[in-house]
Each structure stands twice: as structure tokens, then as C-alpha cells.
């Protein structure tokens, strides 16, 4: 079975005054922060929808196909309050809400109603989903945020839903917060509460794949699966052996090439600048940068140049151009990169990415893809490209990257945010360009 991505869909069910907006944003930020710290953070995605109206619910579930649905907002006795298309506050009947999840359940395993008086809605939901979490009585905004953040923290560390719920309640008790008795966990019939939630989120085979096969057919399938495993392990062992030999040959070739470059430098340098042979490899440079700068562009392997590699740069070779930028949106650097030049970019600092996403470093933040300029990369991450690339050409830089230019053009930098006008702070970005020898 193949592991699937666990998507958490955060639904802010309505906008009140400015205080309500701040509370909802703080809850989303705390959840994202806990996810980023977890040992299984790569298994989780976070998406959010804001000011959700009754008419938005079906579309949000269809588009995101989440594993966990998190409702947050105001409520009154009877459950959550939504806005209708006229902007009036209304409650969705509990049976209508459970019918929605019965029809569009798909991968949904958990529904968390993080607002007071939601017991009856959760009870109806527990008939169609594995886990429904409610807040039975009133609870403070601070306690609701702490409960939610620590619930997801435990899930990202691989705990069961029941254990994650208990730990979230325990955190309220540890901090002596009122309302520790308000959260309630309702479990569907036949659910194995001892199974970690991560293990339950898998891509299952079609329902009719072997439902009517007899014992002999099942045994035959097990034998086929075992033989396939053996073949895969054999191929993997051969592949590792070939890879080890390739690394050994590449290392030997690199040593020979460096020796040639050093000899050429000594031969061409004035006598006053020539150094003893033993000292030709004393240049100090960042090891990861040197290894990146030594890569060869194989697209010119059939050219008429001499046999020595033309794209090699001697260790410690100084950049032809270097420039520092203060960036929080998009920038045309004004730096021209020639084909086969090496570009090294390093970045530091943090930017507050608008109202909801919070602080982000050059590696970006999880989730919020709807707010990203380039949806294939983390929100708020530092990207780069060389202009005139017909395919878009954006690549992830993050805090550090090196690459060789496949064509000539101006270097562009981008903070991956669709609306950078409300960003605060900046990245400090250093760009170095190396001409190949």
C-alpha cells in the first residue's frame, strides 16, 4: 500500500469583529507551527478557507479532499454559526451536516468542531466518520487554541487520535486553563483506536479487487507479491553496487581533473606567483559550494573542444560577480548570467507573510498554497530563475542553492507569495556568479 498525504482543512466559519479575525488567525498559526516541528511533518499538508459560508462547504470539501476537517468560529447552543449568502448568521442542522460528510466522506477520518455547544453536531457526525471532536460547553479562546495546537502536535509525532485528544486535554490541565473538561471525543463504530492515525491513511486497492477471490487465488497473489519483493530487492542491490562504482570512478576522474587544472595554473602564472606543488590545494571555500561549482554541463559533451572539462572551476575560484539584495517580493537583479555560468545563492532572515501565514524563512511555510504565486513550491519560499525561460524556469532556492545556467539571461528572484503587498520584514540574499574556465 502506498502512503498518502494527510491534508488538514481549516475552515473559519465566519467573520466577526477584528478580535474574532485575530483569534482565528492565531489558531491557524499555532497549528502550522506545531506541524512544522513534528517528526512526520512531511506527511501533512495544511490548507485553509476563510469566512466560509454555508454555500462554500461542498466546494471546499470537493476541492481539497481532506483527511481532517477543522471547524473554528463562533457558536451558540445547537452548534456552529455560519453565514448565508445574505450575510446573516445561521446554524446548519446536525442531520444536514452529517449527510454532507456521508456523501463526501472520501478520506475524511476526523472532524474537529473547535467551538462551544457542538456536542449534538459531533454526535451526528460520529455516525459517518471515524472520529468527531466537540466542545460541549463554553471555552475560552486561549484554551481552544492550546487544545487544537497540541492535538495536531501529537498526530504529527505519530500518536493515535485518542492519545492526541488525551494529550491536548492534559495540556489544558497542565496550564490550569478553564474548560479542560469541555472537549469530548466521539468514536465511530468498529474503529480501531489503537492504530496510529498515520497508519490508517493509506491508498487502498479498489473495493472489488479480491473481494470474491477464493483461497487459491489469494495464495497465488501472495506468492506473486513475494516474488516481486525478491526481484525488487535484487534490483536494488545491483543498483547500489553500480552506484558505488560510479561514485568511485567519478571521484577518481575529479582528482585527475583537479590535478590538470592546478598544473595549468602553475604553468601560466608568473614565477613570482607560482607556489610549491604541495600547496596548490589550500584554498578555503565552502565545501558544498565547491562541489556544486565543480559539476559538468553534459549538454556540450559532443562539442569540438579539447578533452579537458570546460565547466570545472578550481577550488576557491573567486566569483566574477557578487551582489547582496534586501528582498520581500520580486526583484530583477540586473545581473546577467551567461550559459554554463554557475550561480550560488544564499539567504537568511524572516518575513511575516500577511495576516494568516505568520513568519516564514527562505525555505517557506507549509500549506497556504492558494496564496502562493507558484503553487508547486512552499508558500513564502525564495525562488530564482533566469529570464527568457519558456517553461517558467522557477526553481526553489530556500536558504541555499547552487545551479548551472542552461541559457543566458537576467537573474530574477521571487518570494513565493501571490500578494506580497502586506509582507513585513525581508530576506538578506547574496548572489554569486562564477564564470566557467
Keywords summarizing the entry:
single chain; 437 residues; Rossmann fold; Jelly Rolls; 2 domains; 6-stranded mixed sheet; 5-stranded antiparallel sheet; 20 strands
Describe this entry's structure for a reader.
The protein has a six-stranded mixed sheet with strand order 3-2-4-8-9-10, sandwiched between helices. Strands 12, 14, 15, 18 and 20 form a five-stranded antiparallel sheet that branches. Strand 16 and strand 17 (395-396) form a beta hairpin. It is built from nine helices and 20 strands. The protein is of the alpha+beta class and 437 residues long. The chain is globular and about 75 Å long. Helix 1 (18-37) packs parallel to helix 5, helix 3 runs parallel beside helix 4 (119-125) and helix 5 crosses helix 6 (161-174). It has helices at residues 18-37, 57-64, 94-103, 119-125, 141-156, 161-174, 197-200, 215-268, 287-293; strands at 2-3, 6-12, 44-49, 68-72, 75-76, 79-83, 89-91, 110-114, 131-135, 183-187, 202-203, 321-327, 330-337, 342-352, 359-360, 382-386, 395-396, 400-404, 409-415, 424-434. It folds into two domains: 2-203, Rossmann fold (3-Layer(aba) Sandwich); 321-434, Jelly Rolls, CATH 2.60.120.
Amino acid at each position: 500500500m502506498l502512503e498518502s498525504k494527510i491534508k488538514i482543512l481549516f475552515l473559519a466559519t465566519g467573520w466577526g469583529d477584528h478580535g474574532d479575525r485575530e483569534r482565528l488567525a492565531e489558531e491557524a498559526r499555532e497549528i502550522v507551527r506545531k506541524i512544522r516541528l513534528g517528526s512526520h511533518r512531511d506527511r501533512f499538508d495544511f490548507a485553509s478557507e476563510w469566512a466560509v459560508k454555508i454555500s462554500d462547504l461542498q466546494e471546499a470539501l470537493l476541492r481539497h479532499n481532506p483527511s481532517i476537517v477543522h471547524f473554528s468560529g463562533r457558536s451558540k447552543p445547537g452548534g456552529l454559526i455560519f453565514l448565508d449568502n445574505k450575510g446573516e448568521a445561521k446554524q446548519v442542522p446536525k442531520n444536514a451536516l452529517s449527510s454532507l460528510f456521508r456523501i463526501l466522506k472520501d478520506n475524511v477520518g476526523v472532524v474537529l468542531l473547535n467551538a462551544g455547544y457542538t456536542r449534538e453536531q459531533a454526535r451526528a457526525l460520529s455516525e459517518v466518520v471515524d472520529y468527531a471532536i466537540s466542545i460541549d460547553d463554553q471555552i475560552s479562546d486561549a484554551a481552544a487554541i492550546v487544545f487544537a495546537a497540541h492535538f495536531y502536535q501529537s498526530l504529527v509525532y505519530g500518536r493515535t487520535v485518542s492519545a492526541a485528544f488525551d494529550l491536548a486535554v492534559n495540556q489544558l490541565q497542565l496550564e490550569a486553563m478553564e474548560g479542560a473538561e469541555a472537549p469530548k471525543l466521539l468514536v465511530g463504530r468498529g474503529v480501531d483506536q489503537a492504530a496510529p492515525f498515520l497508519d490508517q491513511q493509506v491508498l487502498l486497492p479498489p473495493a472489488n479487487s479480491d473481494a470474491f477471490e477464493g483461497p487459491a487465488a489469494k495464495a497465488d497473489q501472495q506468492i506473486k507479491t513475494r516474488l516481486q519483493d525478491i526481484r525488487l530487492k535484487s534490483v536494488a542491490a545491483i543498483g547500489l553496487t553500480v552506484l558505488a562504482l560510479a561514485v568511485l570512478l567519478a571521484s577518481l576522474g575529479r582528482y585527475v581533473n583537479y590535478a590538470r587544472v592546478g598544473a595549468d595554473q602553475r604553468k601560466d602564472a608568473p614565477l613570482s606567483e607560482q607556489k610549491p606543488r604541495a600547496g596548490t590545494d589550500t584554498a578555503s571555500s565552502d565545501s558544498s559550494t565547491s562541489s556544486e561549482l565543480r559539476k559538468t554541463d553534459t549538454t556540450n559533451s559532443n562539442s569540438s573542444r579539447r578533452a579537458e572539462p570546460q565547466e570545472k572551476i578550481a577550488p576557491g575560484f573567486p566569483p566574477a560577480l557578487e551582489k547582496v539584495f534586501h528582498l520581500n517580493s520580486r526583484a530583477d537583479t540586473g545581473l546577467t548570467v551567461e550559459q554554463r555560468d554557475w550561480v550560488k545563492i544564499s539567504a537568511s532572515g524572516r518575513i511575516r507573510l500577511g495576516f494568516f501565514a505568520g513568519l516564514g524563512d527562505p525555505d517557506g511555510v507549509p500549506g497556504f498554497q492558494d496564496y502562493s504565486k507558484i503553487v508547486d513550491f512552499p508558500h513564502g519560499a525564495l525562488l530564482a530563475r533566469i529570464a527568457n525561460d519558456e517553461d517558467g524556469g522557477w526553481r526553489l532556492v530556500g536558504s541555499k542553492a547552487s545551479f548551472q545556467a542552461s541559457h543566458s539571461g537576467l537573474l530574477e528572484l521571487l518570494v513565493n507569495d501571490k500578494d506580497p503587498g502586506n509582507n513585513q520584514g525581508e530576506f538578506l540574499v547574496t548572489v554569486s556568479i562564477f564564470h566557467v574556465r
